[in-house]
Amino acid sequence: MAQEDREDPIPRFFDPTRTNAAHQLLVYFVSFCIVGSYWIQHTVLFGSLRNIDRPIKVLNLLYLLPVTLLPFVTQVMGAHRNAWWGVALFGGVNLAVVLIYSWVWAHAARYLGPKEGSSIARLGRRVAPKLALFSGVIIAGVVVSTVDTGAGVSVFLLMPAIFVYQYLRAPAE
Predict the structure, then answer these.
(1) Are 112 and 53 spatial neighbours (Cβ–Cβ below 8 Å)?
(2) pTM for the full model?
(3) Comparing C-alpha atoms, which of 94, 106, 43, 50 is closest to residue 69?
(4) Stretch 54-62: mean pLDDT
């Protein structure tokens, strides 16, 4: 049997004929980076709290709800490569995460801050502009995706990049 007659058993993810697999891998990578930054932000907040009340436990569960939806919306966005609505769904779930996380921080600063000292209030003042920036990036990603879905997905990569940059350059609390 000639060499050219045999099929290659190893899948080639970056083969131009398999661009959908490459797109799905990119979408997964973007989602992983975003979830990783959410996890680090979550550990920073809860690692700095000495007192946790019932409302913050409920808000924490509410925060985790859209985070657990991310694998589903990531799969939808990867499966519908050229659909702007898939990116919009992904963006909407991420926007929900950011808004609920803002609510968690607001509660921690307002109700737990006096018990914790000035560290929570100081952290809250540093976190608020970042959350506003993330919201802007999410909205920009959705808007860009209406013109070009690949570019819209790429805009979401700014979120973990901004987070990592700010996290690494910030002094330790």
Answers:
(1) yes
(2) 0.76
(3) 94
(4) 91
Which range (16-20, 110-114, 119-123) has the least confidence? 16-20
What count of other Cβ atoms lies within 10 Å of the Cβ of residue 16?
A: 7
**DSSP codes, the chain:** --GGGSPPSS--TT-GGGHHHHHHHHHHHHHHHHHHHHHHHHHHHHHH-S---HHHHHHHHHHHHHHHHHHHHHHHHHHSTT-HHHHHHHHHHHHHHHHHHHHHHHHIIIIIHHHH-HHHHHHHHHHHHHHHHHHHHHHHHHHHHTT-HHHHHHHHTHHHHHHHHHHHHSPP-
As given in the structure block, the two tokens for residue 131 are 């959350």
- 52-to-4, 43, 63 alpha-carbon distances in Å: 65, 14, 15
CA 171 to chain centre: 23
Q: In angstroms, what is the C-alpha Rg of the chain? A: 20
Return the domain boundaries, the chain: 33-169
* Beta carbons of 96 and 131 less than 8 angstroms apart: no
Q: Which two tokens stand for residue 146?
A: 């209406």
Looking at residue 5, its pLDDT comes to 52
